[in-house]
């Protein structure tokens, strides 16, 4: 679905412009001294609140935090438990910057298969996916039985 002419006006089911603005602002706060690859993410929770996060690298490289994980942490801290929409914003020269595998699973913890995920660069939306598009046949909390 990667199309450079994705129109946010056609995606009026969520406050995409506000999510894009939050992800763009978060991206500018990223701590990426090693890769210099800044990423921002914003999520919309079940209460209609926006939460943002940025990537934070660490000299012990695998110990860094992805932007999506930061946004999810902010959501949980604020009392949110369900995702309604996600924006991931990076700048790879027009290439799509989708969530990594670990973040896809983290998003699955709080989002349903039809969760809309908008991929953008600093200037525009590039593509829209569902979580199921990015993580088909996923394992999530609904697979776990609380009854013995």
TrEMBL record:
Coiled coil: none annotated. Substrate binds at residues 55-61. Signal peptide: none annotated. Keywords: Hydrolase, Metal-binding, Zinc. GO terms for cellular component: cytosol. The keyword Metal-binding applies. InterPro entries: APOBEC/CMP_deaminase_Zn-bd (IPR016192), CMP_dCMP_dom (IPR002125), Cyt/Deoxycyt_deaminase (IPR050202), Cyt_deam_tetra (IPR006262), Cytidine_deaminase-like (IPR016193). It catalyses: cytidine + H2O + H(+) = uridine + NH4(+); 2'-deoxycytidine + H2O + H(+) = 2'-deoxyuridine + NH4(+). Its EC number is 3.5.4.5. PROSITE patterns: CYT_DCMP_DEAMINASES_1 (PS00903), CYT_DCMP_DEAMINASES_2 (PS51747). The active site is at residue 68. One of its GO terms (molecular function) is identical protein binding. One of its GO terms (biological process) is nucleobase-containing small molecule metabolic process. It is an enzyme of class 3 (hydrolase). Residues 14-142 form the CMP/dCMP-type deaminase domain. This enzyme scavenges exogenous and endogenous cytidine and 2'-deoxycytidine for UMP synthesis. This is Cytidine deaminase.
